[in-house]
Prior knowledge:
- Among the domains are: 345-391 and 638-794, Alpha-Beta Complex (Cathepsin B, Chain A), CATH 3.90.70; 396-619, Ubiquitin-like (UB roll).
- The chain has 16 helices and 38 strands.
- By secondary structure, the protein is α+β, with helices and mostly antiparallel strands.
- 19% of the residues lie in helices and 27% in strands.
- Helix 6 (259-271) packs antiparallel against helix 7 and helix 6 crosses helix 8 (304-318).
Amino acid sequence: MEIEIHDNLVEGRDYILLPQQVWEKLHGWYGGGPTLPRKAINTGFSQTDLAIEVYPLRLQLILMSRGERTFIRISKKGTVGQLHKMACKVFDLAPDEVCIWDYYGRTKHSLMDSLDKTLDDANIQMDQNILVEVTTDASGSLDGLVKRNNFFESDAPKSGLPDENFAANNYASRSYSSSLTPSIYLRSPNGDLDNVHGSSGMITRGSPLGLTGLLNLGNTCYMNSAIQCLVHTPQFTKYFCEDYHREINRQNPLGNVGELALAFGELLRKLWAPGGRAPVSPRPFKMKLSRFASQFSGYNQHDSQELLAFLLDGLHEDLNRVKHRPYINSGDADGRSDEEVADEYWANHIARNNSIIVDVCQGQYKSTLVCPVCGKVSVTFDPFMYLSLPLQFASTRSVTAVVFSCDGSVPPTPFTVNVPKQGRCRDLLQALGAACSLKNGEKLLIAEIRNHKIYRFIDDPVLQLSTISDDDHLAVYKLPKLEKRVNYIQFVHRHEDLDHGNNNSLTSWKPYGVPLLAQISRNEIVTGFDIHELVHKMLVPVLRNPDSLHLAVQSSVSTRTHSYHTDSSKCQLLLVDDSNTVIEKSNDAIRIPQSSLATVFFINWPKADLKKIDTHHLEYLPEVFMYAPPAKRTRGEALSLYACLDAFLREEPLVPEDMWYCPRCKEQRQASKKLDLWRLPEVLVIHLKRFSFSRSTKQKLETFVNFPIHDLDLTNYIANKKTSERQIYELYAVSNHYGNMASGHYTAHIKLVDENRWYNFDDSHVASIDEDEVKTAAAYVLFYRRVREQDIARGTSNGSQLYAKRSHGYSHR
């Protein structure tokens, strides 16, 4: 049986691909396994378009008459004939007695009888059902009934078949975002399908066009939300409902042979078609999408903004009017004006990229880099498709750390401070010192804690704070300033853990909590009694009864037996060296070795002693960035969209991982970078960066962003001051995300421009909403359209009249 691997593995991070000969050599030298062979398949129309199929199709075969089902794996480039043979083998059926059906969504879509057709060409998708039917029964039994009728499996007689919602139920992401069965609709006498929800606010017959929902295919709400925003962009509606086929570029090597544009265009036409209000299935479109972007195959939840980015780029390449891209080398400014250089860059861009997507959605940045050493200034003008705005001010970040007082004066206390995002360690030390009321004769030492030990000291004043991740754990030790050089001693807590694996129960000790830290002058003579006093002083704030503390120094690891518990009231203190070997007890001087980090002592806490301390103070160490959903804010207290734009355009130094090569210094430099808006598009797409990723965590920011619905004025943000026209925009669509990273749901708020009304598109359900319901903390991607000054003067707006009267629908040419 083929070994299943986790979904969404990333090449280079979770696995690497090796030629068979290399794997065999490595396996012969080192062993290992299991072997996971994968095929190279053709993914395009050229014989050189090859890719490794890491995830073959996972299909569920259903034999209705026996109540049996099973999952199989088969390449999407496998044939219908191969699938037929596998089905016969799995259910032990004679090939001439079996036919198979495309049973997507529990509906018999088509008989799969073209044996040479590939499953990819047959529109078979990841995690869907295949119905296996025995054809010899013509007497009206279950198989005969299934063959003659088109029905959902839930309507079938119960025949021992397990009741599962979907073929991919055991694999798809758990999310309340997906309705795994189609919505219920009633058929009217004239054959139209009407939504049974005819209550107030829901869409019924006679409503304007463009109010058609999309069926959720299983965790596809992200796709439905993005599609609804695009198909309700007036310029795209007009373009795809006219003769867009003449602009399809099938020769573009960067495109999708026009198939993505065709699939999107057909889906848009269905959504704008006159007639009933039955929701449309986006299955054909998703099939094409999965073919050209394998990351969207299957039925896992994805990001609507990532889909939008791919879709806009893919549509552009499929519709690029430039058939042969010229090679263009953009020259330096050489003292020319910004206007002249920007126009040259834009003309060069249009010479290679000219499509409806560029016409509507692309603008232009001015990007300025300044070398911090020689002052070299580099200015370029680059196109953009959307703006990704941060939700926190880019200049600052919050850092949470716990301060430990090494003189035992106060218990460990957490502090959260704001520091420059591109600041240095000295900025964090200064902020923490002010927060904890640091005295003149004291200093702070920051340490990163991993596995209950000090992993590193963060003591270089000029160290970049970007080296501290949001999910790091920081302990800050308040120590007296000493004129002499010092050695550090860390005291690591361990709790008792009994192993009852044999008759002689052994006591083992497991590290826990946050280590304590002390310092001594180098070459200072230290005795066991001095160590005792240091520990006693530091533990006083966490002891429920400080007088109960009694420490002893254990001299040998061999005493870790049951006999050790003759006096369990004692806390055993072990002195160990770097190799974790116990240093024997001595009342004489103890030499503390000079170490780049700290000499380690272990404090062993028997179970009885743990009751004597406030363990919360020793165990709790928050992450650097303490995430908690903020309280609901009023709109007056919310973060404004303008503030997000200011943070996005603020000058900042490049991160160390993204250095710039200075042509004058001939070296990589950490240049400062400044973005300015130079040219704005007709449709401005704004992505609010709600999702943050760190080393091991993913978080969603629930910040309420107060964005204008009318009169988004970007005039003052345009660096090209020779542009006299005001830059005014109006909101017409929002992609929303509700919930968290693990379980979320996407919807869309759409304004029908000529109706001047807002609607909520929630997969197959569409309902009217008031304008004041559009602004929520779920807003994720905003769509604005330009409003001309003459339209403002007339009280109208551009794009308010669609390509044709809605009463007549669209026309095919």
